[in-house]
Amino acid sequence: MLQQWLPAELLRLPKLTILSLCPNPFLPLENHTRRRQVFAQPVCSLAEIATRQLLADGKWTDPCHEGHAILPCGLKERLGQVSLVNICEQCKKQYASSSVQDFIWQTVKGTHDIAVRYRFCSIQCSNILHAKLMSADNS
Ligand SMILES: [Zn+2]
Questions:
Q1: From ligand 1's centre to the CA of 90, what distance in Å?
Q2: Which of 32, 44, 106, 128 has a Cα-to-Cα distance from 116 of 20 to 30 A?
Q3: 87 bridge partner residues
């Protein structure tokens, strides 16, 4: 199945110099006045809140951590699924599952109207980055 957007995580790769985007293989921009689509979970689950708290502590991703024995299996599984790409695009905090997916059609490496998917820990982080991108486009 063809991926319909460019993951923003790809744009963070420091050595990325060549990216073939022509012709644009992603979702076309259908309505030129609406360059952003936001999909947000209204409420973060208790499991996700607990996982983020453990991730913020920094020690719990190590399965040999002494406290792992007392963690519920569901939390151990969630911690095991977190990878380096599970980072909020704005505040850089880790999560197991993002609360917001933000699709923004923007210019990438000189190609216009590329659908880029950003993931965030919260709608506040999404709005901050969106405002930065819009001010960068207008300057
Ligand atoms: Zn965030």
A1: 5
A2: 44
A3: 94
Q: How far is the CA of 94 from the centre of ligand 1 (A)?
A: 8
C-alpha dist (Å) from residue 48 to 6, 59, 62, 64, 126: 25, 17, 18, 21, 18
Q: Report the separation in Å between the CA atom of 21 and the middle of ligand 1, taken as the mean of its atom positions.
A: 28
Amino acid identity at 114: I
Query: Which pLDDT band holds residue 90 (cuts at 50, 70, 90)?
Result: very high
Mean pLDDT in residue range 55-83: 82
The pTM for the full model equals 0.82
Closest Cα partner for 8 from 61, 16, 78?
16
Among candidate residues 50, 116, 101, the one with its CA nearest the CA of residue 78: 50
Gap from CA of 13 to ligand 1 centroid (Å): 19
- Strands of the sheet with 111-120, listed across from one edge: 6-7, 111-120, 100-108, 36-40
- Whether the predicted pLDDT of 2 surpasses 70: no
